[in-house]
Amino acid sequence: MSVRRLITPVAAVSLLSILAVHIRAASPQPPSSDMTTALLAEVHALRLAMEQSATIAPRVQLTLARLNIEEQRTLRLSTQLDQIRQEQATAALDTKKLADELNDLQKALQTASDESTRRQYQFEATDVKRRQVQQASIEDRLRARENEAAQLLGAEQSRWIDLNAKLDELERLLGPVR
User: Fold this and answer.
1) Structure confidence by residue, pLDDT tens digits, 132-164
2) Could you tell me the maximum CA-CA distance found in the chain, to the nearest angstrom?
3) Number of domains in the chain
Protein backbone atom coordinates (compact mmCIF):
# COMPACT_ATOMS: atom_id res chain seq x y z
CA MET A 1 0.00 0.00 0.00
CA SER A 2 1.18 3.39 -0.77
CA VAL A 3 0.91 6.53 1.31
CA ARG A 4 -1.46 7.96 -1.19
CA ARG A 5 -3.98 5.32 -0.49
CA LEU A 6 -3.87 5.92 3.27
CA ILE A 7 -5.11 9.48 2.86
CA THR A 8 -8.58 9.20 1.51
CA PRO A 9 -10.41 12.16 0.03
CA VAL A 10 -12.67 12.40 3.11
CA ALA A 11 -9.67 12.44 5.42
CA ALA A 12 -7.99 15.09 3.31
CA VAL A 13 -11.05 17.32 3.44
CA SER A 14 -11.34 16.80 7.19
CA LEU A 15 -7.69 17.60 7.68
CA LEU A 16 -7.95 20.75 5.60
CA SER A 17 -11.05 21.85 7.50
CA ILE A 18 -9.34 21.39 10.86
CA LEU A 19 -6.27 23.24 9.58
CA ALA A 20 -8.41 26.14 8.30
CA VAL A 21 -10.25 26.46 11.61
CA HIS A 22 -6.96 26.43 13.50
CA ILE A 23 -5.45 29.12 11.22
CA ARG A 24 -8.57 31.26 11.49
CA ALA A 25 -8.57 31.08 15.31
CA ALA A 26 -4.88 31.94 15.52
CA SER A 27 -5.07 35.00 13.27
CA PRO A 28 -6.69 38.24 14.51
CA GLN A 29 -10.10 38.88 13.15
CA PRO A 30 -10.49 42.01 11.08
CA PRO A 31 -13.30 44.29 12.21
CA SER A 32 -16.56 43.19 10.81
CA SER A 33 -17.95 46.67 10.20
CA ASP A 34 -17.31 50.40 10.33
CA MET A 35 -19.45 50.66 13.45
CA THR A 36 -17.12 48.41 15.41
CA THR A 37 -14.13 50.45 14.26
CA ALA A 38 -15.81 53.71 15.26
CA LEU A 39 -16.81 52.28 18.63
CA LEU A 40 -13.26 51.09 19.32
CA ALA A 41 -11.88 54.51 18.36
CA GLU A 42 -14.36 56.21 20.69
CA VAL A 43 -13.46 53.89 23.57
CA HIS A 44 -9.78 54.57 22.97
CA ALA A 45 -10.36 58.35 22.92
CA LEU A 46 -12.42 58.08 26.11
CA ARG A 47 -9.64 56.14 27.84
CA LEU A 48 -7.09 58.77 26.82
CA ALA A 49 -9.34 61.57 28.08
CA MET A 50 -9.84 59.82 31.41
CA GLU A 51 -6.08 59.27 31.81
CA GLN A 52 -5.40 62.92 31.03
CA SER A 53 -8.12 64.05 33.42
CA ALA A 54 -6.75 61.82 36.16
CA THR A 55 -3.31 63.39 35.85
CA ILE A 56 -4.44 66.98 35.44
CA ALA A 57 -7.33 67.18 37.94
CA PRO A 58 -5.14 67.05 41.09
CA ARG A 59 -2.81 69.69 39.63
CA VAL A 60 -5.77 71.94 38.86
CA GLN A 61 -7.17 71.52 42.38
CA LEU A 62 -3.80 72.26 43.98
CA THR A 63 -3.25 75.32 41.81
CA LEU A 64 -6.75 76.59 42.56
CA ALA A 65 -6.14 76.19 46.30
CA ARG A 66 -2.86 78.08 46.02
CA LEU A 67 -4.53 80.76 43.93
CA ASN A 68 -7.19 81.17 46.61
CA ILE A 69 -4.52 81.51 49.32
CA GLU A 70 -2.67 84.11 47.23
CA GLU A 71 -5.88 86.07 46.71
CA GLN A 72 -6.46 86.13 50.48
CA ARG A 73 -2.88 87.25 51.12
CA THR A 74 -3.13 89.90 48.44
CA LEU A 75 -6.39 91.20 49.87
CA ARG A 76 -4.95 91.27 53.41
CA LEU A 77 -1.80 93.10 52.28
CA SER A 78 -3.81 95.54 50.19
CA THR A 79 -5.96 96.33 53.24
CA GLN A 80 -2.85 96.83 55.37
CA LEU A 81 -1.34 99.13 52.76
CA ASP A 82 -4.55 101.19 52.63
CA GLN A 83 -4.54 101.44 56.44
CA ILE A 84 -0.92 102.60 56.49
CA ARG A 85 -1.69 105.24 53.88
CA GLN A 86 -4.61 106.47 55.98
CA GLU A 87 -2.29 106.70 58.97
CA GLN A 88 0.15 108.67 56.81
CA ALA A 89 -2.58 111.09 55.80
CA THR A 90 -3.50 111.59 59.47
CA ALA A 91 0.17 112.05 60.38
CA ALA A 92 0.63 114.61 57.59
CA LEU A 93 -2.40 116.51 58.86
CA ASP A 94 -0.98 116.45 62.41
CA THR A 95 2.36 117.73 61.08
CA LYS A 96 0.59 120.60 59.31
CA LYS A 97 -1.31 121.47 62.49
CA LEU A 98 1.95 121.52 64.47
CA ALA A 99 3.60 123.74 61.85
CA ASP A 100 0.63 126.16 61.94
CA GLU A 101 0.67 126.15 65.75
CA LEU A 102 4.41 126.90 65.82
CA ASN A 103 3.92 129.68 63.27
CA ASP A 104 1.15 131.22 65.41
CA LEU A 105 3.33 130.98 68.55
CA GLN A 106 6.25 132.67 66.81
CA LYS A 107 4.02 135.53 65.67
CA ALA A 108 2.59 135.85 69.17
CA LEU A 109 6.12 135.80 70.59
CA GLN A 110 7.10 138.75 68.39
CA THR A 111 4.13 140.79 69.54
CA ALA A 112 4.25 139.81 73.23
CA SER A 113 5.08 142.78 75.45
CA ASP A 114 5.71 141.40 78.91
CA GLU A 115 8.43 138.90 79.82
CA SER A 116 6.11 136.37 81.46
CA THR A 117 3.98 136.03 78.33
CA ARG A 118 7.11 135.77 76.14
CA ARG A 119 8.47 132.93 78.32
CA GLN A 120 5.14 131.13 78.12
CA TYR A 121 5.17 131.37 74.29
CA GLN A 122 8.80 130.21 74.14
CA PHE A 123 7.99 127.25 76.38
CA GLU A 124 5.02 126.33 74.17
CA ALA A 125 7.14 126.78 71.01
CA THR A 126 9.80 124.44 72.43
CA ASP A 127 7.11 121.87 73.21
CA VAL A 128 5.68 122.15 69.67
CA LYS A 129 9.19 121.71 68.17
CA ARG A 130 9.67 118.58 70.30
CA ARG A 131 6.32 117.19 69.08
CA GLN A 132 7.35 118.01 65.49
CA VAL A 133 10.48 115.88 65.90
CA GLN A 134 8.33 113.03 67.25
CA GLN A 135 5.87 113.50 64.40
CA ALA A 136 8.69 113.37 61.83
CA SER A 137 9.84 110.09 63.40
CA ILE A 138 6.30 108.71 63.14
CA GLU A 139 6.10 109.74 59.47
CA ASP A 140 9.47 108.08 58.76
CA ARG A 141 8.26 104.81 60.30
CA LEU A 142 5.01 105.02 58.35
CA ARG A 143 6.93 105.56 55.07
CA ALA A 144 9.10 102.52 55.85
CA ARG A 145 6.01 100.43 56.66
CA GLU A 146 4.32 101.61 53.47
CA ASN A 147 7.37 100.70 51.40
CA GLU A 148 7.58 97.24 52.99
CA ALA A 149 3.85 96.62 52.57
CA ALA A 150 3.96 97.74 48.94
CA GLN A 151 6.86 95.36 48.24
CA LEU A 152 5.07 92.45 49.94
CA LEU A 153 1.90 93.21 48.01
CA GLY A 154 3.85 93.31 44.75
CA ALA A 155 5.44 89.94 45.52
CA GLU A 156 2.06 88.36 46.34
CA GLN A 157 0.52 89.82 43.19
CA SER A 158 3.40 88.37 41.19
CA ARG A 159 2.80 84.93 42.73
CA TRP A 160 -0.90 85.25 41.94
CA ILE A 161 -0.09 86.06 38.31
CA ASP A 162 2.24 83.04 38.11
CA LEU A 163 -0.43 80.72 39.52
CA ASN A 164 -3.02 82.15 37.16
CA ALA A 165 -0.65 81.47 34.25
CA LYS A 166 -0.30 77.85 35.45
CA LEU A 167 -4.07 77.51 35.44
CA ASP A 168 -4.16 78.86 31.89
CA GLU A 169 -1.55 76.26 30.92
CA LEU A 170 -3.54 73.46 32.54
CA GLU A 171 -6.65 74.67 30.76
CA ARG A 172 -4.82 74.46 27.43
CA LEU A 173 -3.72 70.91 28.32
CA LEU A 174 -7.32 69.90 28.83
CA GLY A 175 -8.08 70.93 25.28
CA PRO A 176 -11.19 72.45 23.83
CA VAL A 177 -14.54 71.73 25.40
CA ARG A 178 -16.91 70.05 22.94
Assistant:
1) 999 999 999 999 999 999 999 999 999 999 988
2) 162
3) 1
